[in-house]
Amino acid sequence: MNSNPKEAGSDQLLIQAALDMTKQLDLREVLQQFVDQACALTGAAYGALAVLDAWGETTMFIHHGFGPGEAEVIGHPPVGKGMIGAIPNTDALIINDIANHPLYTGFPAGHRHMGNFLGVPVQMQGRTFGRLYLADKPRGFGQEDVKLLKILGNVAGVAVENARIYRESTNRERWVTASQTITSAMLEGAEEEEALTLIAETVREVSGADTALIVLPSVGYTWACEIADGHMANELVGMVFPPQGRTMSVLHEGAGMIVDSLARASTLRLPLLKNFGPALYAPLMNRGAAQGVLILLRLPGKMEFESSDLPLAESLASQAAFALELASARHAEDMAALLDERDRISRDLHDFAIQQLFATGMQLDAAREKVRAGTLSAVETEGLLDSALAAVDESVCQIRSIVHDLREPDQDVGVVERIRRETSLARNALGFAPSLIVELDGEAISSADDDALDEVCERIRPDIADDIVAVIREGLANVARHAHATAVRITTSVEGLAPEGQITINVVDDGVGIPAQRGRTSGLGNLRTRARQHGGSFKIEPNPDRPGTRLHWSVPMSNPRQ
Q1: DSSP 104-166
Q2: Fewest Cβ atoms nearer than 10 Å: which of 27, 262, 459, 558?
């Protein structure tokens, strides 16, 4: 039993401080308790903890004793120079007369004056986790304070480890919930673009990243960022990754990696990535092969990704690979249906119209020989011509019937679904999946919003719907033939109601632009004609926002021919 009342009281305060810290499960709350208790037990007026990353930079700054708004006036946290930078990794630094010490270089603007200083390293799991410094203790600091802080630091280490385990557990729950959300979306038939966008957005949120990228195969043998969510997303979409680098290494080896800071990396071939700090790379694995790479990025100065984050990210990245496989299967199904339809049309044309026209041709050829021989009377000639004309009329009717049967299945399919089919079928020619956005009255709508999709289909007349499909088909064909693009975005906008409403199609790519010498232009001429028939407009021009081309086709909902 401790006979010294003062020491006994100090022990009780230390035990209470330990209990207060260890019952916290949030890391920031644990560290705040650590700083608060360090000030309370030593009698310091002010205290702060700078949590360090692998480079020794401050990633979290916890303080005690500053007045409301005072920390904001001071600005950024200490950068580890002067007295703070002089704190050794294994011992304490005590300065009881700051003003006359050689390490004193002055306080930042707005920082209140401090008379004495105690700085100690905070060791956790064998490394320097941070630097704790206290200031303005009446009558100064001593070795008893150092011993007290060492004990308190050991308790904080246990509390931080508990908070880490709890955070990993809750993170795992969040990742599992995110995985279930993504799986449900894919089972409900989400399109490839929508599924990958959902994956990028969800992974960014659950991982605490500022940006999420999905890198996929592009034109030729290149790999490009096809999906981006978060900070600088617009600048990063379409970025082509070099053959050498971290992304290609992850792709070829099928194993993820964590990078402590891209901003500090000695080799970085993509300047845009210099805007980010910690990074996590996870391959999109499917059946033992990598189909792409998921990249999570945090801004400089933020906490690094932990090793426990990597397997969770790899699991969700595999779901992205599964989404690609589902999209590929749907594409194959669309192609099979298209080929079956073509086979049926060719059979019908051969068995009906072509055979009948061939028979009519033979009949006319026999009549010509008789006319040359002079053995065919005028009445017989008239009868043969009437018979041939009837056969031609019947063939025309059969061809119309075949065309009607060809169009009949689409009559029960909305224009949005027809557009989706066109974008799916264009994948073969483009080498990647186009992005499709449907807007209603200025708002982008989800493929799961059946009411909004029905509203779009109701506002578009059937004759305009046919032209919309033709415009998108020709626009994608132009991109495939000329653009050498890595991405293309189709936006279908329906604004307002008839007769004032407007329907607009934009096909935007990131390719080489409009060729100086264009050969075939009949397709573009057809698009211009289709717009003019509805009293609308058509133009194709360089993309105003970035390299590439924009095709713009717009028509009013009213029918100018009525």
Answers
A1: ---PPTTPPP---EEEEEEEETTEEEEEEEEE--TT---HHHHHHHHHHHHHHHHHHHHHHHH
A2: 558
